[in-house]
Amino acid sequence: MLRYYLSHLHVKTSSGPIEDKSNKHRILLVDDDADIVEVLRRGLKVKGLQVDAYTSPQEALESFKPKTYDLAILDIRMPAMTGFQLYREIKSRDPAIAVCFLSAFEIQPDEFKSVFPSMDGIKTIIKKPISTNGLLKQITPFFKISAGAREISGHGHFSFRHRSGPH
Question: Does residue 95 fall inside a structural domain?
Fold first, then answer.
């Protein structure tokens, strides 16, 4: 299915984020594969979500603003900076953000916890390729978790309609 979408897709390559403003839920999506980023970004946009999408973890980190995203979806294997490194940097800036990982490999939660005990807060590793509907089923619970974490940490949940977005 992903191959079908990729074969009918005109990928726009840019160094900055690709941004949408259509819903109060905002997602940070980072994967070094431009095709996957574009397919997922478009699919999530159609479902009414806002997505800031990056193919460079460094650019995503440079543009990252705390208390902006409900969820970060990060590829595990990227050059120069892994998804785990990006996760640690993002969590140090915004402890309340919910994060899940993308991986082309099947990773069981128990196996992940034993190999990466310092990553105990990770609840979901999403196997690629994945359809937009499949992705939505896995990430929708994170919107409630993120909102609850922001309330507990005192940051509150807020609307993104008035935010100007990354540059």
Answer: yes
Distance of CA 13 to the CA centre of its chain: 18
Give the number of other Cβ atoms within 10 Å of residue 36's Cβ: 22
- Number of domains composing the chain: 1
Confidence of residue 74 (pLDDT cuts 50, 70, 90): very high
Write out pLDDT tens, residues 17-35: 444 444 579 999 999 999 9
The reply to whether 16 falls in a domain is yes
Q: What's the rounded Cα separation, in Å, for the pair 44 and 101?
A: 16
159 in a structural domain: no
The model's pTM is 0.70
Q: Which of 60, 106, 115, 67 is nearest to 83 (CA)?
A: 60
Half-sphere exposure of 44 (CA within 13 A, CB side): 31
Element (H, E) at 74: strand 71-75
